[in-house]
Amino acid sequence: MIADRDEQTGKRVSEELDCVFLPVDITSTEDVAAAVERAAALGPLRSLVNSAGIAWLTRTIGRDGSFSSAHDLDAFRQVLEINTVGTFNCIRLAASAMSQTHPDENGSRGSIVTIASGVAFEGQRGQAAYAASKAALVGLTLPVARDLAAAGIRVNTVSPGVVDTPIYGEGAAGKAFQDEQVQASVLFPKRAGSPDELASMVLALLTNDYMNAETIRVDGGMRLAAGTSTPWRGVGRA
Question: Does residue 130 carry a catalytic annotation?
Answer without folding.
Answer: yes
